[in-house]
Amino acid sequence: MMRLTLIYNLKGWHPLEESGIFFHPLWSEGRFMPDEILTLPEVADLLKVADKTVYTMAQKSQLPAFKVRGQWRFKREDIDAWIEQQKLAHAVDKESSRRNA
Hints:
The protein has 101 residues and is an alpha+beta fold. The chain has helices spanning 40-47, 51-59, 76-100, and strands spanning 5-9, 12-17, 27-28, 31-32, 37-39, 66-68, 71-75. α1 (40-47) packs across α2 (51-59). The longest helix is centred in the C-terminal third of the chain and has 25 residues, at 76-100.
C-alpha cells in the first residue's frame, strides 16, 4: 500500500512525497474533520513549553482557548494564527528597537 504524506502550513495541506493513496491526519471514520482540536499537553508539545505555561497563558487569555467540561481545548488554526501574530509582533519590536538605537 502506498500513501501520499501531507504536511500542513498556514496555506493548507501539501504533499510531502508522491506515493499514491491520499492520507489526511484529520480524516476520521469516513469523514473529513476540518478543525483539529488540541488538548493542553498537545499545545505544550507544539510550543515546546511546560503544560503549566500553557495552562497559565490560557487562564490569562494570552492564548486562544476554550473549556469543555472544565478542560482546556485549543483549535489548531487559532494556535497557528497566534504563532504568526507573535512572530510579527516580535519582528515589529525588533525593528523599532533597531531604529531607536
